[in-house]
Amino acid sequence: MGVKKVTPFQTAEEDKKDVGPLKDRGCTDIICILIFIIFLGGMGVIAYFAFTLGDPWRILNGYDSFGNTCGIKNTKPEGVTANLAGRDMTEYPYLMYFDPTVMLPDSINTLRDPTDTTPVEYTMMLCVKKCPDVSVYPITAGTGTEFYKMWSYNKYRKEGQDFCEYEFWDTYGKELAEEMDNHSTGFGISASDKFKDANYITNKGASGPCPEFVLKSDPIMNRCIPLFDELTNAAEDAGEEVTEDFVNELENKLNALLGTNVSASQVMQYAMADVMNSYREIAVMCGSSLIISFIIILLLGWIAQIMIYAISILAAVACIAGPAYFWYVWYQAKEELDKQTIKLESQVDNVQTLMIYAIIITVICVVVLLLIIFLRSRVGLMVTLFKEAGFMVMRMIVILFTPIILALFILAWAALWSFVSGYIYTAGTATDLTFTRQYAMSDQGALTDAEMNITMVYYKDHDYIIYVWLYHLFGLYWGTEFFLACHEMAIAGAFCQFYWTRDKRKVSFPVVRGIWWVFRYHLGTVAFGSCIIAIIQLIRTILAYIQNKTKDSQSEVVKYLLMCLQCCLWCFEKVMKFINRNAYIYTAFKGSNFCTSCKKVFGLLMSNLVRVGVINCVGSFILFIGKFLVVMVTGILGYFMLSKDEQIEYWAIPVLIASIFAFAVAHTFFSVYEIGIDTIFVCFAEDETKNDGTPGREYYMSKNLMQWVDNSSEALKNLKRKKGQQRAQAKAAKSGKSGEVAMEDM
To answer: What CA–CA distances, in Å, run from 21 to 100, 396, 497, 498, 655?
Structure first.
């Protein structure tokens, strides 16, 4: 007679008592996963039309004012009449703006009159072979300078840098080029008025055929970004001072466009060189962060215990010392006041204020001290949960690497979403834009009416594009939350198997089985919960968009109300994520649908409200300290490795990169730990509710957890008695087999 095998699933008897993880599961919330699949099909339809109508190269390479994408061969769009559309730009990979102050990602950049909302001029954008390595800055009008810019542009054209409209020098600028070739300098030119700069540069200086100024630039993201140091130098070379307002305007516009300080480009170049020179040290720091995270996870149970009790002691001391100090200060002030024969009203008020402060602080400290005393047992439970989670993690060490798989799925989803977004963003219809350019000296006959008119090309968005973006954005949120929820439920399933198995040695492949449960039975539940979070996130995004668009026209009351609404939605999202996680945990070991799990787990949490508060507040703080330790040790290691290296100019950049990686690693590992603690607590609460430790209703929890139930002593005695009986039965069975063998030998 042998010992009965223990499985990680509930038996028929346990099934009747409604405890432990279900062996025979069924699919939950099937309608939700069907809706999710249909929704993904809708995203596929959007992607198909986006691929048909869009061209992301317009974003990556940039495109000029005639709809030509830089760096590739273009075909003329259907329905477009612009003569300069459909050009081969294979040898022209960079986009240059005539006026960088309107450098925006729109297909047509508009200059507006400050007193009028009507567009008065559209800035020219051209694809060029290389970004300007010279500067031609506006010079104050005067004798001998009226021809300087066009002479300069003709000179640089012959040197291989053309800054004017395509085909300008071969068509209506041909006579101008011949005239400028007759002069060796741009100053003191004596020529007809029709060759003056003002005939070829518009009043606003933006729509061509030639720009008002050219700034030496660097190629960044295939765009020619002006260098601010060269801006000052160019003006000084021309004998003029740079107007501060213009420089500030240009810098602010470029910083807003790039999301960074372009004047710091030189520092960034040094920083990138330092990163390349210190790649070995960065690799060592990243590897060290992995080792440090493992060590802290191993020691986290004991570290948590030390930190919790240290914080509790310090808080208790502060609760006693704080009020004592304030009462002492009040007593000293009162003594001084009593000694004075003439008491000023301000002095009396100060003493009374000190007494009020002392009373308030005393009340607060007494409450905190009582909470510390009252919650000391709950804090002990949290320490035990940390130890239990650490024990289970070490028994299934592979679980620490599941977040890496999660990260790969999320990155792949984000990359696919971004790829499709590029097509959606460029899925506009090419449309002609014809207008008349205004010149200061157009009456001199330099340009004909036909030459003053120009047809540009812009891409007009479809009327329904806003709804496409909302659908697509909701898909990003839903998909991301779906992957996160799958990970949480799979991890919870693995921990549940350990908890609800009496003999922990019998647990096999818990992580694999947890993943199988999710993908075989509970994808509908995951889709249901993640959809709720995605809806909240979409509402928050729409609200943030409205706030941004109306920030200049809102009253203070409206701003305050919108901020309050945003705050409420943020809190609601956090609450729903907390409920969802615990619902996933309940589904992992009970196999119930989402709504049933929410109802059941909400009742469990409400009946253990104090414990939940302690675990979430203090536990989250301990996990944060663990992450902080990983980052700090990694950063200190990097400092000692790089600070003395003479080849490294900015050692803080490589250290920062390694520290960010260290935080990501720590967050990855500790997220598993956090889910494990929550799972063990929910299982503990369910176990405590369904069982009482008596024969036939023994607890599944370990001895460490058993000490935190009300009838812990009786439960431990029953557990000890049952184990003694099992050992006796095993010994008897072994003896019986030995006797049978002896009889056979005889």
So the answer is: 64, 18, 7, 10, 46
Q: What is the DSSP string of 155-180?
A: HHHHTT---SPTTTTTTTTHHHHHHH
Dist. CA 254–CA 260, nearest whole Å: 8
Residue 56 sits at φ, ψ, to 5 deg, of -65, -15
Beta strands (DSSP E) in 166-260 are 217-220, 223-226
Residues 180, 578: Cα–Cα separation, whole Å:
74
Whether the ω angle into residue 211 lies within 30 degrees of 0, i.e. cis, is: no
Q: Indicate the pTM of the whole model.
A: 0.74
Number of alpha carbons in the 13 Å side-chain half-sphere of residue 261:
6
Spatial strand order in the sheet of 217-220: 125-128, 94-97, 223-226, 217-220
Tokens, residue 270: 């040094």
Q: Decide if 68 contacts 125 (C-beta within 8 A).
A: no
Rg (CA), the chain: 37
Choose among 493, 728, 642: nearest CA to 3.
728
Secondary structure (3-state) at 437: coil
Side-chain half-sphere exposure of 362, counting CA atoms within 13 A? 13
Two tokens, residue 282: 């960065």
Q: What average pLDDT is seen over the chain?
A: 77
What separation, in Å, do the N-terminal and C-terminal C-alpha atoms of the chain show? 22
Q: How many other C-beta atoms can be found within 10 angstroms of the C-beta atom of residue 100?
A: 22
For the stretch 427-476, pLDDT in tens is: 888 888 888 777 765 555 556 655 677 888 888 878 888 899 999 999 99
- DSSP assignment of 379-403: HHHHHHHHHHHHHHHHHTGGGGGHH
Predicted confidence (pLDDT) per residue in 680-724, tens digit:
888 888 888 887 777 777 778 877 777 777 655 555 555 556 555
Distance CA 385, CA 317 (A): 26
Question: Which of 469, 457, 419 is closest to 55 using CA atoms?
Answer: 419
Q: Fill in the amino acid letter for 163.
A: F
Cβ partners under 8 Å of residue 226, min gap 6:
100, 215, 216, 217, 250, 254
- Please enumerate in sequence order all residues whose Cβ is within 8 A of that of 209, keeping only pairs 6 or more positions apart, or say none: 124, 164, 165, 168, 173, 200
CB distance 476 to 534 below 8 Å: no
CA distance 319 to 370: 10
Between 102 and 483, name the one with better pLDDT. 483
- Element holding 617 (H helix, E strand): helix 609-642
Count how many Cα atoms sit within 13 Å of the Cα of residue 421 in the half-sphere of its side chain.
15
Residue 89's SS3 state is: coil
